[in-house]
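Issue: copy button drops trailing tokens. Both records pasted manually instead:
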Amino acid sequence: MNLLLHICCACCLCAPLNELRKEGFKVTGLFYNPNIHPLLEFRRRLKALRVFQESDPISVIYCEDYGLREYLKKVNYEGDDRCADCYTMRLEFTAAYARENGFDAFTSTMLFSVYQNHEQLKMFSENLSKEYGIDFIYRDYRHLSECSHDIARKKMIYRQGYCGCIFSEYERYKDTTRELYKGNNPHSKDKESTRKVLNTKDVLQRCDCFG
């Protein structure tokens, strides 16, 4: 059976791909993730998937356009259903692509992540399967999450710190703090290695442009 596998990231692909192959599926990947922001993060995840391909060849269809505008148009990012809108956007694209390009079925690595709403993803996929007339392959591989991460570490594949959108990045890092402009040696008496943050008044006083 020719299976179109939506890939959210290389890390979530590692272990599930092996299991799907053991079941006899001929797997083709689809990287379609307009939710991933900012641009540099999007590029990191594209590169991570290509690094994965070097050690474990898999045919992948890449949608490489940075999807900021598409994401903002389709997702109600001010409401409580932001994730549901994001799931639907990516899954619907996958189901439609599978039907239009002769695949027998579709599924997504999002189902294999312990960080996503599993039941919601399953329900949306089943509804899209009926709407588009294409089989949906349901598997619960969440128990392979740590195994997948271990494989990613061994392959030295980039592992992201948040789901994908700019809002999930904020939620992931909003409570973190760090010292800015800190010297390499906090105990050093070398004044050149000690930096301080200037306030606005200091900056203006030191800038010739403002007299």
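Record 2 (pasted manually too):
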Amino acid sequence: MRKKIAILFFLMILILNSIGINTYAVEAEQLQSKSAILINADDRQILFEKNINDKMAPASITKIMLLVLISEKMDKNEIALNQEMTISKNAAGMGGSQVFIEENEVQTVESMLKAICMRSANDASVAMAEFMYGSEEGCIKAMNDKAKELNMNDTSFANVTGLPDPNHYTTAKDIAAMTSELLKYNYVNQYSTTWMDSIYVGKNKDSEQVLVNTNKLINYYDGLIIGKTGYTNEARYCLSAAAKRNDTTLIAVVLGCDDSKIRFAEIQKILNEGFANYKNLIFHKKGESISSSTVYCGKEEEFNVVSKENINFFTNSNCKVDDFKLEYLIEENLKAPLSADSPVGKLILSKDNQILGEYNLYPEKNIEKLSFIKFYFDNIADKILK
């Protein structure tokens, strides 16, 4: 049995090295956090793990999912930063971290976002939940539905704040997944990476609440783009953070740390190792012109060919673009009309004769069919006259 395990292990190393992925330098036993993970944000490839499927209390990291729902609604123009809401008794009475909003006072979405992202305010979180879904319960259902959509199979939300509850738990792996989802949007990034700000609360807006971000990484970690801390006696000190350097974006999560210094130190350690060992090579960016192609019977004779996604590959830091082969296969004798949503070819990415990915290619825009009269005069009539 040991011999079989050893053979499988070395085969795994050979496969990983053949496509340019190194083994990770940090050992799980070296970390004091109870659970930790590092992933590539683009494809959620796991680069490092420690007890990533252990169900644990997430504390205020819970609010990442709330921010996902807020971002979705902003993206659909269902809510806006300057929209106002009236604070309920329920929201104003929330304990724990808060900005001391009062019952019946009027607040804006932007002020509540600042309070959630920077102070991790429970009262602001409940206020936003009620504003978006009519009740906290409605928002909790939406959070759990979104968790299922993201395949967060070991997650159960019982509130929007992260306050202790036996039915409120998640895992490092699931937290990384919802952090990756939040990165699809940029509505909250500026608040998550702002060190200090303030909002005015109270019915007369006569009380200034100075907000100091709970995420100290803002001040000294290069490339940090988002982060959310959490703490309760049950969860201990937690943190989920994403950082970007050049074209590489990594997400790290640590849970169950004994003090705040440990969570910041271990997040940095994990991220640093990731950036030292891996990088994301981008061959073509989403929407950029890759090549051009001719089309018959169209109002235009040529059109630009694009991809609807980044064409990239996550690999070790020693690889370079020239190590890869890109083969462009565009259909011949294309006829109008062409839809921007229908593929006209594909790009095959390979390395050392191993196919790593295939990507559909599309027209940059719809190509309309030339009218018969226009086609006649531009082609047939012109030839007759000649």
